[in-house]
Write a structure and sequence with these properties.
By secondary structure, this protein is of the alpha+beta class. About 35% of the residues lie in helices and about 20% in strands. The structure holds adenosine-5'-diphosphate. Adenosine-5'-diphosphate (ADP) binds next to α2.
């Protein structure tokens, strides 16, 4: 029998290394993973047999069979499912197909504890066999094909594949246990593991040739699980642990579900859904394909996990199953896309999920914040994609703001708006702390006006699409047209004049002259130069003109080459800042030579300073540096070259 050798994909080798060398707290999960794979393989065969009944004719009762060979120190997990051919083996048991794997691997630190916790979220599937086995043999025969294959590996860098003349349909995975793993040769232990982790598997899981529970030699087959689909059982008979294990199976997940929704719908359209919201963000959440993974069953038969119309992309983090009573079993994927039943099920699912989220949000804000931090950025995609649900999604959204570390809802924001405030102010950017320190929001903060700090890329898209909430328009704090004079400073806000305090200083004399000078010097570089209402501490800032694109969005689009050049900004100057006052005075006097030189450098220095704070690139860093050096030099006593 000719044997071919293959190297594992680098990611797999790395994963195997960690798996084999770590003291995983719960090694028994290997059994769940392998049984889960077997169950999926049977699901796929059952579906294929709808159009090719000959595939199952000779062996129609699909099941998973466990057998223990104590003297040989092996345990075998076998199924009569779809099986694999040579290409499948190379593809499936030599690589990790999951998107985001490489990025995930980069997060591994080499520290066993941290890495294991990370892998716990990732799920290791088939490779978990190497937690307990020093060698794994896979004997497999794909349904409808002529020959079988044997895959073998010790989990160290490589595996071999060899053709075998004849094997039974399906797959048998044999684990040669390592020293110290003898507990998995004990039928009692295996029975308990299956009942804990795999009871919900809708196929019989049988233990072959094991002594019965009372120790008698049975010699036959003992079915270890309930072997009925979990979702058809009455809710009252399902324990939270059973739901959790089912979630682990269906979602290929290791975390606990944050929300479980189990519903049976009867009437014109009848279906059962069992859906879960994870508590941990899956690694591929932001993969460009934005696919959901809901499994569609028709009358208990698995059909596909690729029915696009079943769940909108903005709910792609939801895991689970839908079992329809109405769809035809032999429906093709193309037909599913335009099927009205699928459309109706989808809107039922969306409603149920959003209602479930709302209930949790209303009951416990802290708990909801955990959900929000994991999935909020995805849910917000729905605000512009699903206009019918826009209001509900806006109600479910939470934001960081200048009002403190916690999250705020839009209703809360509107309820606590300052007197005279007529808009919802927000600022978008990459990083919360730098947004909170932005010069453009100084004036708002000083008046006690709350500003939403938006840091998800999706925020740049939904805000312009929405326009307003409860009649209050969204207004970017970095655009022109923000007027503060109608907003009454809140009590305690530091702009409120204290009793008896001096009037704020009058506008600097010479301001008009300074503005004229700046406009002249910066012609072409800025759209306009204006006196700012929004600055209290910084001398200058940039804003976009009212009708122009938001500056952050424009920068993002430029990075992705969607726009070629930035539209010119408006430079706003703070008339009460000491620097501006002095420059204005100098502009008015224009006498002294030193002042004139500084005035010549000031326009571009002010503009570059505003660009740096805004995070915009300087078009000519060399010129900036020369100007800065000149100004600093003039501010210092002359050096004594003799010293
Ligand atoms: P996952 O199940 O998350 O896709 P695994 O590493 O557990 O990842 O398995 C990789 C792939 O190998 C599966 O997606 C499946 O295509 C294939 N596979 C694993 N076990 C079996 C089996 N018993 N029968 C058929 N195919 C299998």
């Amino acid at each position: 029998m000719a044997e071919e050798s293959f190297g594992f994909q680098a990611e797999v080798s790395k994963l195997l290394d960690i798996v084999a060398n770590s003291l995983y707290s719960n090694k028994a999960v290997f059994l769940r993973e392998l049984i889960s794979n077997s169950s999926d393989a049977c699901d796929r065969l059952r579906y294929a047999a709808l159009t090719q009944p000959e595939l199952v004719k000779e062996d129609p009762d699909l099941k998973v069979t466990l057998s223990i060979d104590a003297p040989a120190r092996t345990i075998t997990i076998a199924d009569n499912g779809i099986g694999m051919n040579r290409e499948d083996l190379v593809e499936n048991l030599g690589t990790i197909a999951r998107s985001g794997t490489a990025a995930f691997m980069d997060q591994l630190t080499g520290d066993k504890g941290t890495d294991m916790a990370l892998i716990g979220q990732f799920g290791i599937g088939f490779y978990s066999a190497f937690m307990v086995a020093e060698r794994v043999d896979v004997l497999t025969h794909k349904a409808g094909e002529q020959r079988g294959w044997r895959w073998r590996s010790c989990g160290k860098g490589e595996f071999t594949i060899a053709a075998v003349p004849q094997a039974a349909r399906g797959t048998a995975v044999t684990l040669h246990l390592r020293k110290g793993e003898d507990e998995f040769l004990d039928p009692g232990r295996i029975r308990r593991i299956v009942q804990t982790y795999s009871d919900h598997i809708p196929l019989p899981i049988v233990l072959k040739g094991a002594p019965g529970k009372d120790g008698e030699e049975q010699g036959g087959e003992e079915t270890l699980n309930a072997a009925s689909a979990l979702w058809v059982r009455p809710k009252s008979e399902i324990t939270p642990d059973q739901y959790k294990e089912f979630y682990h199976h269906v979602g290929h997940a290791f975390d606990d579900p944050w929300l479980t929704l189990h519903t049976k719908v009867e009437g014109v359209i009848a279906y059962t859904s069992l859906l879960f919201v994870p508590s941990v963000r899956p690694i591929d959440l932001f993969h460009p394909d934005r696919k959901h993974r809901i499994k569609l069953y028709v009358r208990r038969v698995f059909v596909t996990d690729d029915c696009e119309g079943l769940m909108p992309s903005y709910l792609r983090f939801v895991r689970g199953i839908v079992d329809s009573e109405d769809l035809p079993l032999n429906i093709s994927r193309e037909m599913l896309q335009h099927n009205p039943v699928v459309g109706k099920i989808r809107s039922g699912l969306v409603k149920r999920i959003l209602d479930g989220l709302k209930k949790r949000a209303d009951n416990d804000g802290e708990d909801y914040a955990k959900f929000w931090d994991s999935f909020g950025a995805v849910l917000k995609e729905g605000i512009y994609e699903d206009s019918a649900r826009r209001d509900e999604l806006l109600e479910l959204s939470r934001f960081r703001s200048t009002a403190g570390a916690g999250l705020v809802s839009l209703s809360e924001y509107v309820a606590r708006m300052a007197e005279g405030q007529d808009a919802i102010f927000h600022i978008t950017g990459e990083e919360r702390d730098s947004l909170a320190a932005s010069p453009q929001i100084e004036g708002l903060k000083a008046r006690g006006v709350e500003v939403l700090l938006l840091t998800d890329p999706v925020d740049d898209f939904w805000v312009p699409a929405v326009g307003d909430f409860q009649g209050k328009p969204f207004r970017s704090a970095t655009k022109g047209g923000v007027t503060l004079d109608k907003i009454k400073p809140r009590e305690g806000a530091h702009e409120e004049p204290e009793e008896g305090a001096a009037e704020p200083p009058a506008a600097a004399p010479g301001l008009d002259a300074l503005i004229a000078l700046l406009k002249e010097a910066l012609k072409g570089a800025v759209k306009d130069v204006r006196v700012s209402e929004r600055l209290t501490e910084s001398p200058v800032c940039l804003v976009a003109d009212e009708g122009d694109m938001d500056m952050h969005l424009e920068r993002m689009l430029m990075q992705h080459q969607r726009v070629a050049v930035c539209s010119p900004r408006i430079l706003e100057i703070n008339p009460s800042h000491e620097l501006i006052r002095r420059l204005a005075a100098a502009a008015a006097a224009k006498g002294e030579a030193a002042a004139c030189q500084t005035l010549a450098d000031a326009p571009h220095l002010l503009l570059d300073q505003a660009r740096i704070v805004e995070g915009e690139p300087l078009p000519d860093p060399g010129a900036f540096s020369r100007r800065l050096a000149r100004v600093m030099e003039r501010g210092l006593p002359e050096g004594d070259s003799n010293r």
